Amino acid sequence: MTDQTYDLIIIGGGPGGYVAAIRASQLGFKTVVVEERATLGGVCLNEGCIPSKALLDSSEQFALARDKFATHGILIDPPRLDLSRMLARKDDVVKKNTDGIAFLFKKNKVDLVTGTGRLGGKSGELQQVAVATSAGERLLSGKRVLLATGSTAVELPFLPFDGERVVSAREALSFARVPQHLVVIGAGYIGLELGSVWRRLGAQVTVVETLARPLPSMDGQAADALVRALKKQGMKFLMETKATGGRREGEGMVLTVDGPAGSSELACDRVLVAVGRKPLLEGLGLEEAGVRLDDCARIAVDADYRTSAENIYAIGDLVAGPMLAHKAMEEGTVVAERLAGQASVVEYEYLPGVCYTWPEAASVGRTEEQLKEAGVEYGAGRFSFLANGRARCMDETDGFVKVLADKSSGRILGIHIVGPRASDLIAEAVTAMTYGGTAEDMAMTFHAHPTLSEALKEAALDVMDRAIHS
Ligand code: NAI
């Protein structure tokens, strides 16, 4: 059966695909999304960003009640954990978000076909997408196809996922009981965030990381401060240590790890493998359609997100750049607007990154290491949350803000924050940098008192040696 002709067929209803669909529809394109999950939102909403943040928020509340309430003069019996209720709340948060996207599709008249899509060749000038649905194969025809199928967790060949003892983030969001000893392989975003969740809930957590520092793209000082804070919370780090083997033993696992002191074994009951993600390309029919990959096995696209095949586009985790939901969303908006002839661009230079541990770590722009390597003359300003009134009120004084600015022009080149609500504070940095702001611009801007955001103003002042409170 051939349906109507669409202006745009999108394969994948995650943050890239669903945003592209809504924006394309707003711009007058007749749009359909092909999605194999029963719900929209992809990994981010269903088994990534949203459920992990729901658990991070819940587990943080638990840790506060247990470890910090007394400091505030609130005396309670030690709090008890009802894990199944915490997990049910997380599922409810996910449902509200995925239902929200379904509502937006209806509101914006985006069609949805539930099934697995692949490029189905051309019929005249039209692209076809074959969709395997529960009711058999369906053929969609459209002027253009946008690929937005996202990514999946990388597996270690010597430690395949079994969904129970050796898991990816998906299962680590739903452990039925708190692990006794969780080993996290990879000190990236997923490892540190989910390691934090289970540490706060009482698990012993050991993070095994090949490199000397976690979050390799993060400013070195910020990464060190974050590790110090996480160690204070009881997380154990085995840095410059590589996981090289693993076997099931009794009820648990025994891992082989190779570190500075040689090879050793590590016993645990759960292993979270968080060593990166890879684009989901299999089964899309790319080769037959003439869609070429780049040197990193991502889909090669031009500035319009056009692939090497005519009228086939790709965005998000499928193409170059960090695998971040907000990057995919921005590309979704921009690809639709460029199809409509608008001159929109994604400002990749000002793409923020956030690690939602506590304290949080957030950054935008270049790190001090990158500036040094590039030989850029810069000035650095720093302000500690220890000297911030609001942070003291909150009893959240770990961390700092660092502003890096060009020596001659003062233009901000990078901002790095480790501290309470760094994820929200970084927005000001992104705005300032996107508008070409200088450290002085930021320093001269009103910041309400007392707020955490004053740390940004003070760090900007410190670039010019004018900080008031340090
Ligand atoms: P990642 O790429 O952030 O970190 C993986 C880490 O594993 C690296 O530091 C690497 O050196 C280490 N590693 C690799 N093999 C190893 C081995 N055999 N033994 C020990 N260490 C090893 O990957 P992650 O955390 O899995 O995240 C995947 C993607 O998801 C990332 O691109 C990230 O941007 C995105 N993400 C972003 C989040 C956020 O923005 N807050 C949250 C979750 C995921």
| Bulk shape | globular
**Major β-sheet profile:** 7 strands, mixed
Bound molecules: 1,4-dihydronicotinamide adenine dinucleotide
Total domain count: 3
How many helices? The count is 14
Q: Into which percent range does the helicity of residues fall?
A: 25-40%
Mean pLDDT: 97
Rounded radius of gyration (Å):
24 Å
How much of the residues is beta strand, in percent? 25-35%
Number of strands: 22
User: Could you name the CATH homologous superfamily of the largest domain?
Assistant: FAD/NAD(P)-binding domain
Question: What kind of assembly state do the chains in view correspond to?
Answer: single chain
Distance, first to last CA: 71 Å
Query: What class, by secondary structure content?
Result: alpha/beta
CATH topology name of the largest domain, in short, is: FAD/NAD(P)-binding domain
CATH architect. name of the largest domain: 3-Layer(bba) Sandwich
Low-confidence stretches: none
Please give the CATH class of the largest domain: Alpha Beta
